[in-house]
Amino acid sequence: MRAQELLQVKALPLFSEMAPQHLESLLDAALLQQFPSHVDLIHEGRSADFLHVLVDGLVEIFTEQDDAEWGITLVKPVSTFILAAVVSDQPYLNSARTIRESRILLIPAERVRAVFDRDVAFARIVARELALAYRGAVKKLKGYVARSSVERLANWILTEAHKDGAPAHILLPFDRGTLASHIGTTRENLSRGLTQLTEHGVRVRGREILIDRHDLLETFARPQRLIDDPSA
After folding, report:
1. pLDDT by residue (tens digit) across 80-102?
2. Which residues pair with 64 in a beta bridge?
3. In angstroms, rounded to a whole number, what is the distance separating the alpha carbons of residues 29 and 71?
4. 8 A C-beta contact, residue 174 and residue 60
5. DSSP-H helix ranges across the chain
6. Of 19, 97, 124, 196, which one has the greatest count of Cβ atoms within 10 A?
7. Integer angstrom CA distances of residue 79 from 2, 21, 58, 101, 130
8. Which long-range contacts (CB under 8 A, 24 or more apart) does 18-21 make?
9. From CA 173, how far away is CA 101, in angstroms rounded?
């Protein structure tokens, strides 16, 4: 890594509390790489060789079952992904690919486990990352169990609008097929859901989703703090 890149990496929250000698042990074996969009990074079933840290870009975690793909989650910077496989030295349960051009730090898994055993502060941050990933998975499962696909779509729109800081406008960073897989439905059902939401204050214009009546959409979606609030 170049000196400027090294400074950026050292400032990442994952490494912010580590002992300097342990951080150096991690980073002297690490690679910071730029990947174009739609590059496969991880294949489910294979050994966890690296800890991946997304520094810039967007990554999709997905699974392939019966010749179909299903989205698990979307990873935004700065975050690790499929950390549990690295810590437990187990095969990846999911696959991962870039959705758009991404900068990713690759740290050998063996080095991560060795430092995890020696550095309490690093172990604490890793445990926090794993806890957040677990809570995210439980929230998604609750949404699947308790909601129809159009209700999941409505809540996804509300959540994304608040994330982007533009509560009346969303620009999809991927195609509709990707969105459909991440809310647990088909592309055809997604199109029907978007049409249904026009009755609840939503307009679609290409890859743009516009919220004209936030109150109508919220009334229909009935967002719940323990499912939809990222801070909960």
Report:
1. 888 999 999 999 999 999 999 99
2. 69
3. 31
4. yes
5. 3-10, 20-27, 83-88, 109-118, 120-146, 149-163, 176-182, 187-197, 214-221, 225-228
6. 97
7. 21, 22, 10, 16, 11
8. 18/115, 18/119, 18/121, 18/122, 19/119, 19/121
9. 11
